[in-house]
UniProtKB/TrEMBL annotation:
TM annotation in the entry: none
Protein name: Histidine phosphatase family protein
One of the GO BP terms on file: negative regulation of glycolytic process
A GO term for molecular function: fructose-2,6-bisphosphate 2-phosphatase activity
Pfam families documented for this protein: His_Phos_1 (PF00300)
Keywords assigned: Hydrolase
Record InterPro entries: His_Pase_superF_clade-1 (IPR013078), His_PPase_superfam (IPR029033), PG/BPGM_mutase_AS (IPR001345), Phosphoglycerate_Mutase (IPR051695)
Tagged with keyword Hydrolase: yes
Keyword Repeat found: no
Stored SUPFAM superfamilies: Phosphoglycerate mutase-like
Gene Ontology CC terms: cytosol
Organism: Candidatus Ornithomonoglobus merdipullorum
Residues that hold substrate according to the record: R8, H9, G10, E11, T12, E13, P14, N15, R58
Amino acid sequence: MVTFCIIRHGETEPNKRHACLGRTDVPLNQKGREQAFRLFSNLLGVHCDAVYSSPLSRAKDTVSVFLEARKDLTLIEDERLIERDFGEWENMSMPEIEAADQERFALWMEDFVGYTAPGGESSADVQRRVDSLIEELAQRHDGETVMLVTHLGTARHIISKCLGLTLEESWRFTLDNGGFAVIEYDPEKGYGVLKRLDS
């Protein structure tokens, strides 16, 4: 059994217009920095043995305040926590994608899980890397609590994996910027229990 604390990074300027931000490395905005401080106060009572983060600055900066207070912990970057690669649609909002590429946008809406953005990743691609990460960490950190600092799309996949939900069901919930979920995951059963949600 391992406990995962899944954290979504604080707000960025592209988040305000609901852009498919993906791999573009942009900093937190003022609200995002405030969310990082709020997150720090909310996490004070959460036990933690290890912290893994997406290598993008908006994720690392979100947890930096917490790590300043926890000198015993070292941030471990893992590429599998990065956001979905949106390829040619990177940094575009859904209305912008539809206006620029109506035919392929329609295909995406018909198969949200399986369709791959031009030059990017599908939801199934993201799920494969998330699955390998979760299984690896469940073995490495048995009996421990692990923070995973990531992005909305990847967080949805992690939460779905840990709760035994399908890819289609991952679109039934969201995690706000600076929000987090705590899940006790049993790798032998292949699912876990949601213990806390701060969204």
